[in-house]
Amino acid sequence: MIFRMDSLQDLLEGRTAVPLSPRAVWKFTGADRVRYLNGQVTNDVTKLQPGRALHAAVCNAKGKMEGEVWITVSDDALWVDAPPELRESLGARLERYIIADDVTMEDLSDQVSGIHLLQEPATAARPPVHSTRFHLPGVDFWKLGPLDSNWPLAPEKLVETFRIQQGVPAWGREMTAQMLPPEVGFDRDAISYSKGCYIGQEVIARIKSKGHVNKKLARISSAAGAPPAGLPSTLLHGGKEAGFLTSACAHPDGAGWIGLGIVKRELAEAGGAADIGGCPVTVSPA
Asked: By the 8 A CB rule, do 219 and 259 touch?
């Protein structure tokens, strides 16, 4: 399905909303909630301000990703939301280290609904939370109970097209349990290199001191034809395997297709011509 540019413009100008439901949502309460969660994620929870959402990764001791989260704060709680498919695994991971801490973690995934707008409305029934879920300024609106949005919701395929166009990695596609946060661009907004210790910090700090990763998120596109049917698809550069196409959709202007993938760092940074299944493609930085 090809979406016209004016459909994307409706998203950009806040006339349609991105549904945030379903999402895995947890509420953290207790006197140690900030200290505890700060030791679990890559970003600095101590600097989180009301009305702002903090992007972060949850890692294992080897620095590999166990989840992607957005964190917000209210008067008496921290709220964490994540892709819905991580509800069980990430929920167990976030709860695992609560031992002697004054922390209570509550799963409210089935009770919370939300939307994301790329333009803040002049008036709103509840205070917004500012976030950059698509690498652009936007606002989230959350509530307990069913969604009562005044905005039409963007179709899932339109949101997916916009995600790919904006170079935003998705869990299960570009982000997997085999990836390190810097490989999918989390050093852009989701990693603090000056905060205290957290699980996986040693590996991620070593990557920064080393100066690079071996593979990176990249944009992949073709000026003609339809997106490859089977994903992930192997990408060749100079006749050798150089990565994988992991997401793809028809280009919004109707010419060819656009996609995201994980490719060798040198190619991701410099860009260049490549090949997928005998079809020429162009790789460029994400």
From this structure: yes
Query: What digits encode the pLDDT tens for the residues 180-217?
Result: 999 999 999 999 999 989 999 999 999 999 878 999 99
- Give the distance between the most distant pair of CA atoms in the chain: 59
CATH number for the domain harbouring residue 226? 2.40.30.110
What is the rounded distance in angstroms from the CA atom of residue 93 to the CA atom of residue 59? 9
Q: How many CB atoms lie within 10 A of CB 73?
A: 20
Label residue 279 by pLDDT band (50, 70, 90): very high
* Confidence tier at 254 by pLDDT (50, 70, 90): confident
Residues 146 and 234 in one domain: no
Does residue 247 register a pLDDT over 90? yes
**Same structural domain for residues 59 and 151?**
yes
